[in-house]
Amino acid sequence: MYWYPLYAYVRRCGHDADEAQDLTQSFIVRLLEKNSLRHFQQERGRFRSFLLASLKHFLANERDAVRAQKRGGGLAPLPLNVVLHTGERRYSLEPRDEMTPQRVFEKHWAWSLLNRVLDRLREEAAGSGKGEQFDRLRGCLTGDDNGIGYRDLARELGMSEGAVKVAVHRLRHRFHEALREEISITVTDPNEISEEIRYLLTVLGT
Question: How far is CA 62 from CA 18, 28, 112, 179, in A?
């Protein structure tokens, strides 16, 4: 789930597509083989910061290492075929801005987390027979409603304007809950959840 933010960081550091795929793949394999995630669980902090620091350290070691065989030799490939093939196409659509590699990583980290929350809410809505309603009200969460008012939404959904307002209020409340639940997985101190939410929303707004 964090593959693309890592890949985008490596690409922005100047590596070409094939090399970036190799490096990202090898980094994830290294994390799993060495059970490095236990270090995050034993320390206070944010998983986002831990993962980026680990990647920087890995890339520095890769630059210094002299390898006799092709990178990743002898390692079983991870089941990421779809991600590997779509990653560069997605990166090619990135705007050519002056964002640093770290800023690129953080922005895509935030979008990945936000999309997981929205997908989760979509599944919940579909499970209760309100998938279509969620699709129409989703813009009220993301700001992509194109200025459509409650009256127009009510007409489209066959609901009263008051019922739409209540549905949006409940959806926003559930969105906030799900966002906190998702971020709680990436921090070791529950007191950091609100701060991490504010930071990621700031990143998305820049």
Answer: 15, 14, 27, 35
